[in-house]
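re: that chain from earlier
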Amino acid sequence: MADAKALKETVEKLTIELKTKSGEGGRLFGSVTSKQIAQALEKDHKIKVDKRKIDLPEAIRTLGHTKVPVKLHHDVVATLDVHVSEE
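^ sequence. v structure.
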């Protein structure tokens, strides 16, 4: 539990940067999924989180910042900033 709280503090300071192709009005070709967020978190910050713990009710389909809840422990939920920009 203490580890989860420490990890929460770390995760909440991070911004995950994802680049993708987009069309008019900032709409993405495709979408950003919890799997992509989990992979970026591990690759860029060496933090391994199961994609099922990333609470993304539906995939991100627009450019910009999105706050995404990440369940780190039964009682510990961090809010991760995901920034999707044009490739």
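Strands lie at 15-20, 27-32, 60-62, 64-73, 76-86.
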